Structure formats: C-alpha cells, structure tokens
Amino acid sequence: MALKYRIEMKVAYKQQVKAAQIALTILKRIESLIPFEAACSRVFELESKDELIINRMVLSKYLNLLKRGIDKNKKELESLSNPLGE
C-alpha cells in the first residue's frame, strides 16, 4: 500500500515538474515577443500531441491570468503613448 502511494506521488511530482517546464518555455517565448497564442502552442521537446490538451488544462488558470495581464499592460501602454485619446 505504501509503495503504491509513493509511486503515485512520484508520477504526480513528475507531471508537475513537466507543467512548470512548459510554463517557463511559454514565458520565454513571450519574452521573445512571440504573440501569446503562438507562444502557447505545443512545446515539442516536452509534450506529445496527446499531452498538449491535458497540459493546457492544467495550466489554463495561469495562462488566462497571464493573458489578462498582458492585455492590461498593452492598454496602459497605449494610453501612455496617446494621452489625449487621439
């Protein structure tokens, strides 16, 4: 029983590490000025076609918050560059 628990915990840990690596890769892509939608595409080195959907579901809340933050920053930057609303 304890062995089964440890094996399941190890699998869960590996999945979390892989999700973190995928999130870091997406952030690096965004830093390279790749559009958000393209940056969130499949990370070929880390995930298969089947894993893509599962990994995006795991990261969905984080990616949604990231997208909102990027959009908010774009709007603020536009308002600063165009203060009179021209």
Quick tags:
86 residues, mainly alpha, 78% helix, 0% strand, elongated
Question: Could you provide a short overview of the structure?
Answer:
The chain has one domain (7-81).
Regions with pLDDT < 50 over 5+ consecutive residues? none
User: Helix tally?
Assistant: 3
Overall, the morphology is elongated
Task: Note the beta-strand portion.
Answer: under 5%
* Rg from Cα: 18 Å
User: Number of DSSP strands?
Assistant: 0
Q: How do the SSEs run, as a string of H and E?
A: HHH
Largest sheet, strands/sense/barrel:
none
Instruction: Report mean pLDDT, rounded to a whole number.
Output: 91
Number of domains: 1
Q: What's the structural blueprint in terms of helices and strands?
A:
Layout: H1 2-31, H2 36-39, H3 49-81
Overall description:
The structure is a single chain. This protein is mainly alpha-helical and 86 residues long. The chain has one domain (7-81). The protein is 78% helix and 0% strand. The chain has three helices and no strands. The longest helix is centred in the last third of the chain and has 33 residues, at 49-81. It starts with a helix and ends in a 5-residue tail after the last helix. The mean pLDDT is 91.
